[in-house]
Amino acid sequence: MKIDAPPPRRLTVSELASPLGQIEVILDEAGILRGLDFGSGLPRIRQRMARLYPGLALRGGEAPSRVAETLEEYFKGAPDALSRLDCATAGTRFQEQVWAALCDIPPGAIRSYLDIALQVGSPKAVRAVGLANGANPVALLIPCHRVIGGSGALTGYAGGLERKAWLLDHEGASPGSRTRRHSSAVISQ
Predict the structure, then answer these.
(1) How do strand 11-16 and strand 23-28 relate by DSSP bridges?
(2) What pLDDT, in 10s, does the model give residues 48-104?
(3) With a threshold of 0.90, does the pTM exceed it?
């Protein structure tokens, strides 16, 4: 769950195994997730953390068991398990609006970039939504993988389109069918 939290004083990076390869998780001293990305030793997530939290070095450590167990539950078929983990971000006002909208997409549902732009009240900001989506520091918990192109095509995922397709299939979404389940009747196709 995305929460407001004070800036971190310490960041710890851990690696966890998943069916999609290694996952790097970055937690603060309170155990709040500040970063989650696929891969190992990725400059992308490390550079993002350096930008968001200047002066804080990433120290190696072990992820708390509750984080590892929750991610394991997710990958074993319980997509709602991730809601038990807290994450905090430090984006621009617009990024935070987009990330909050992403958190409204339930497992098994998908949205287009236009859907998100409409939800945040900026219907002409489709590309900006894509950029905010790509700047998401906490993959999976802020489910940027649930956003697809307006044509129904899988587009832009920092973890790779193969992982995005796997995650959507794992959660029961079917982007190829052009069927999009919405939690709000305000958003139309």
Answers:
(1) antiparallel
(2) 888 888 988 889 999 999 999 999 999 999 999 999 999 999 999 999 999 999 999
(3) no
Q: CA dist 41 to 14, 16, 38, Å? A: 10, 12, 10
Q: Which of 36, 98, 101, 144 is catalytic?
A: 144
Catalytic annotation present for 87? no
What is the tens place of the pLDDT at every residue in 112-153? 999 999 999 999 999 999 999 999 999 999 999 999 998 888
Phi and psi at residue 99, in whole multiples of 5°?
-65, -35
Which residues face 80 on adjacent strands? none
Tokens of 51: 């930008």
Distances (CA, A) of 62 to 12, 75, 109, 171: 8, 19, 33, 27
| Per-residue CA distances from 15 to 8, 40, 70 (Å) | 20, 7, 14
